[in-house]
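Attaching the record inline, Q. Sequence:
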Amino acid sequence: MSISPRESCPKECALWKELHEWFVSQAKSSEADVLFIGGDHIAWLPQSRFYADNFEPLHCLCFGSFGDSIFNLLWRIENGEVENFIPKPEEFLSALSKIAEILKEKQPAAEIFFLQLTPIGRMQSQLRDFVRQVNAKMESALNGKASVVYLDPSLIDLNGEVNAHLLYDFAHLSQAGYETVFEPVFAAVSSFFNP
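Structure, as predicted:
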């Protein structure tokens, strides 16, 4: 059964709209080979040593916006408001699939990678369960439209707790977390450029 994604929507915030406009102008004026687009982790990615050492030389753009929902992200992509909530995994996956379709329409030659969602919260919770469900179904939902980059299992320890060394506040990545999470992304992107 196919579930239609909710409508894409912008945030009603002048700063967010200015950031979006800046991203659009950067996209038009840059000759980037790699584009990272997403929420908090992507917004912080350029601040990491791992990014500086590995991705910066690849002519990357990072269009990360703090607190974006999947639907804000979809709007940003479609336009070159949703209150905080946890969508159903099927809705989230449907929106991811739509994002992949739109990216392919706009850039048919692009190789598209989706990174699995990082766990959130120290212990098991509704949000962690949502992340687990999305990650388990991501590849089938994308159905060949994009490649999935899998997370290192060390983000969660043997007791089921998030590794605070890698996610310092149980949600955001530390320097070591960026290295652990984005090493497979770097490998995937590198293999695309050097088959």
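The radius of gyration is 16 Å. The chain has one domain: 14-193.

More tomorrow.
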